[in-house]
Amino acid sequence: MAFLMDTCVWIDVHEGLLAPADVEALTQGDDVFMSPVTLAELRFGAEVTRNPATRMRRLAALQLLERKPLLQIDGATGVIFGSLAAQIKARGRQHRYRVHDLWLASQAVQHSCRLLTRNGHDFEDVPGLSLVLYQLARRKP
């Protein structure tokens, strides 16, 4: 089963908190996909930083990630998104502040992908989502 990566995975790799070999171990060699949502979040993060050197590093990393296989967002994704948001709301949970996460989850459900993240609380109530969680190693002081 393929994997869709949450944005935090790419940030952790870029920041050196997660090694590419760790991602390989977590995904066990299965196919790995990007989302347009992740590209948007990463581009936003690059453009809003005030530090020019940080902006350049982030944009360079983004260019590399743009080469990864991309899952498209289409009409079926939108239908799944609407259904997931309604189900979450019906359970009394908030869905509005989680729009990006719900798009990622919708893509993962649509394409039968597992979603790799360290932010389980963002996705734990999404019906039908196959979630794979990781934790960062604690740094010694």
- CATH architecture designation: 3-Layer(aba) Sandwich
Over all CA atoms, what is the radius of gyration? Answer: 15 Å
The CATH homologous superfamily corresponds to: 5'-nuclease
CATH topology: Rossmann fold
Write out the strand line-up for the largest beta sheet, numbering strands in chain order: 2-1-3-4
Mean pLDDT: 93
What kind of sheet is the major sheet?
A: 4 strands, parallel
Structural class: alpha/beta
Provide the succession of SSEs: EHHEHHHHEE
Tally of alpha and pi helices: 6
The top-level CATH class is Alpha Beta
Low-pLDDT windows of residues: none
What percentage of the residues does DSSP assign to strands (E)? 5-15%
Total DSSP E strands: 4
> How many structural domains in the coordinates?
1
Please state the overall shape, judged from the principal axes of the Cα atoms.
globular
Helix residue percentage: 40-55%
Topology, pairings included?
Elements: E1 3-5, H1 7-14, H2 20-27, E2 32-33, H3 36-48, H4 52-65, H5 75-90, H6 99-110, E3 114-117, E4 130-133
Parallel strand pairs: 1-2, 1-3, 3-4
What is this entry, summarized?
This protein is an alpha/beta fold. Helices cover 50% and strands 9% of the residues. The protein contains six helices and four strands, in the order E-H-H-E-H-H-H-H-E-E.
